[in-house]
From TrEMBL:
Cation-transporting P-type ATPase N-terminal domain: residues covered: 5-79
Membrane topology: Multi-pass membrane protein
Keyword annotations of the record: ATP-binding, Hydrolase, Magnesium, Membrane, Nucleotide-binding, Transmembrane, Transmembrane helix
Organism this protein belongs to: Pseudobacteroides cellulosolvens ATCC 35603 = DSM 2933
This protein's name: ATPase, P-type (Transporting), HAD superfamily, subfamily IC
Gene3D superfamilies given in the database record: Calcium-transporting ATPase, cytoplasmic transduction domain A, Calcium-transporting ATPase, transmembrane domain
Protease is among the record's keywords: no
Cellular component terms per the entry's GO annotation: endomembrane system; plasma membrane
Amino acid sequence: MDNKTKIYKSAEKFLKEYNSDPHKGLTDDAVINNRNKYGKNEITPLEKDPLWKQFLEKFKDPTIIILCICAAISVLLGFYEGHVPWEGIGIFIAVAIATGVGFLSEYKADQAFETLKKDNENIQVKVIRNGTLNVISTHELVVGDILEVESGDKVPADATLINSVDLLIDESLMTGESLAVNKSEEDEKIIGGTVVVSGQGKAIVTAVGEKMQMGEILRSLSRKEEDQTPFRSSWQILQASSAKSVHLLQC
């Protein structure tokens, strides 16, 4: 893009902070320094258990264990008293649905994580370094790089526009919005993983790898945390399916 084009005000602070120039980009020394300081444009793969083990892990939640015990007692009492234990059976079915939902949610998050990783492996991007336009692998991208994007490009990292011309970006992957978004000085942030529909823009990279928005989302969805249990995430499903299961079994 023309060097005389106006620089958006929001980009000025990032240019200063990351020791970058809108026309010359980073120097070789600055690339090394920024990579050491802000990290690489890579997402570290998580260690994953086999699928069967991941599924069984869902049953270690204390509340799920208590519900299974209650359901078992209800079933035994029902048979002892000579009637079909619909409530106990309904609870078992509801627990199976809840744990299944939790398992599928994590599985889909893992798949999305792997897809993003593979998509980023072979992407070539255009950056300005040492005053020259270069084509590099997305993995070589660092915070402070001056990135040029145009129609058909996939945005390789989070960035703030320096300037743009009729830039439309498809953000449906992030927002679910089907219409392309017009990017300009009023809406200058572009997100890694989105796609340029038309126009062109020059931007300074502000986050890479796990620090970019998509990376943080995928990591948080994939990370196993004690407070994110299958029961907690599927409580409403469990309540609804318990009542429905009992009702259907009694019909």
